[in-house]
């Protein structure tokens, strides 16, 4: 039985709100509360629909392809490393003064913004998709574990929704620089976890000593 802390940590790194907050803030900071509420709600619902789609089609597809859990673990590890490198190379380069004075962005509906880039690839990234497939594939014969994973997924979606609504307050009181530092810390932890997941996959595949 996978411990709840392990499931939470993996899902938090794959689809947690740390990467959603700055993206949502930068895209909606000049919009009114109603716009932000609709964008956050739509993004959460769309992300939930993606999770449901992955649950219904991804797991069966992986099983029909006879992909082993070891291969899925290695894939998650590789994608976590890719996500870590992306985090380290993008943090600190997102400025708030990219728009010139007098230049207005084209109007985008909350639904369009929610679909992309909020729901995908911000909340549900490629790493998140593979992670969800792995966890749900592991729960096929274990109803208790399936319930635990389902609850954790709902918690992640809820956290993203709440943090999107509070993004302005979070950035105002915590500051973007602090979020970047926290992002770097989690990126380092994510890199270590990625190596651990890859080693676990290699052990399951028989390529490394247990």
Describe the structure.
This protein has 210 residues and is mainly alpha-helical. The protein has helices at 4-15, 20-28, 33-64, 69-90, 110-123, 126-138, 143-165, 167-174, 176-204. It has one domain (4-90, 109-204). It is 77% helix and 0% strand. Helix 3 runs antiparallel to helix 7 (143-165).
What is the topological layout?
Elements: H1 4-15, H2 20-28, H3 33-64, H4 69-90, H5 110-123, H6 126-138, H7 143-165, H8 167-174, H9 176-204
Helix pairs in contact: 1-6, 1-7, 2-5, 2-8, 3-5, 3-6, 3-7, 4-6, 4-9, 6-7
Instruction: Give the terminus-to-terminus CA distance.
Output: 18 Å
* Rounded average pLDDT: 84
Strand content: under 5%
Low-confidence stretches: 92-104
Largest sheet: none
The global form is globular
Give me the count of strands: 0
Please provide the ordered H/E string of secondary-structure elements: HHHHHHHHH
Number of helices: 9
Helix content range of the residues, please? Answer: over 70%
Q: How big is the Rg? A: 18 Å
Structural class: mainly alpha
What count of domains describes the coordinates?
1
Which key phrases capture this entry?
0% strand
Short overview:
With 210 residues, the chain is mainly alpha-helical. The chain contains 9 helices and no strands.
